[in-house]
Amino acid sequence: MATDHTRSAILTAAERLYADRGFADVTLRDIVAAADVNLAAVNYHFGSKDELIAELFVTRSLATNRERLNELKAAEEAGGGRAEIDVVLRALVGPTLRGCLGPDKQRSDAARFMIRASIESVPPIRKIKNREVDHLRKFAAAMKRALPGRDEVDLYWGLHFALAMAHQTIRDTERLTKLSDGKCDLNDVNAIIDRVVAVATLALTTNPGRSKTGPRVNVLAAR
Amino acid sequence: MATDHTRSAILTAAERLYADRGFADVTLRDIVAAADVNLAAVNYHFGSKDELIAELFVTRSLATNRERLNELKAAEEAGGGRAEIDVVLRALVGPTLRGCLGPDKQRSDAARFMIRASIESVPPIRKIKNREVDHLRKFAAAMKRALPGRDEVDLYWGLHFALAMAHQTIRDTERLTKLSDGKCDLNDVNAIIDRVVAVATLALTTNPGRSKTGPRVNVLAAR
DNA sequence: TTGCATTTCAAACAGACGTATGAAACTATG
DNA sequence: CATAGTTTCATACGTCTGTTTGAAATGCAA
Fold it and tell me: What nucleotides of chain D have any atom within 7 angstroms of a protein Cβ?
């Protein structure tokens, strides 16, 4: 029992390597080298490579979802069963963005691993991933409570876009940094969360249809 | 000369397979089986697997960029050297979205291949991909012409978010369909383009400031 | 200690991968 | 037709993959 040191060393090393280099490029031999354990240990403790990946994904997936729901539940209880739409969205994208872009290295590995998992769909993960939809449904419901008059389809698109902006920001920090010559600050996580939430909120609270020909706002006053 | 049938059969089959299943899961033997050519043909015509991938990517990358720039140039010439922001954004996300979600199967393979390439970064592509930033800079410039008063950083974030929404919509149609119980229509490509462009335009043309739903969000210029 | 179960280890396994080879089948020019 | 050049083909090569094996090491109860 004292010696599941091996087990957790494998998990930690695997998560970091997968987060850094993706599933395709990382072999079991890479993992055991990083964890400084024997090659056969993976199959002994996890059964197979796929089961190792699945265990990582399940653990992290549950943790992320729990974190999101805690934030949502706290907000809705504070608001008497209903939270403002921007607060709901913040609970949705905040945990992942903080996890990926924040300073904590261990959390960063975990969150970036989840992003990888959501992109490069490997067989062991694909099966489990369908549960995510059930999780997101709870946020769709909270959004419906926040904006009862809004067309349901708009809500789904808003949720979809919010996640899209958050994930792409994590996935492709490099391009944005290069494109903006470093002017877009990707270290200020809270500012990024504010930005994503703001755009998604805007999309969900503005009346569609009159966008193109509407009066253009003078932005000069805005710093 | 008449017999680069083999060559193009390989290209077509490879593009379709990579688009469908990603780079990691597709072997040369899968490709030659689908193309109904001999295994050695790939190395004979392309030199190596990596060079095959690179050729696919370069070809498609140039085509996509050309299509985008044509649309942008036409719009700016019609407007006397300046296009409205939503038109610029439409030129940015339209070609890819039409390509991926539209009915044309060949184009769909091409566009979905490009999405894969932008996600699962394999070595042969990674090197070439840096040029994309130069391409996007032209759109950043057009956006600057469309919204001369807007803070530069906001423009970059707007461009980033527009691409994020477009790509995620292509990448994860399945989740949105499931989540919305089929209520979000992913066959109406023009409606999707309108939606993406509308949200991005909104984000770029709305005055930053207090959200109507609470004091907490200091919107676009979140810093 | 002895005995038994758990865990580690070096080594080997079978299979799949990208690539190389050399002969056979073509095409085209004279 | 003959011949030179190109393209196809079956086959084999070396390497890397995940997994298995059986023995050695370790932990722990009696």
Answer: 7-12, 16-22, 27-28
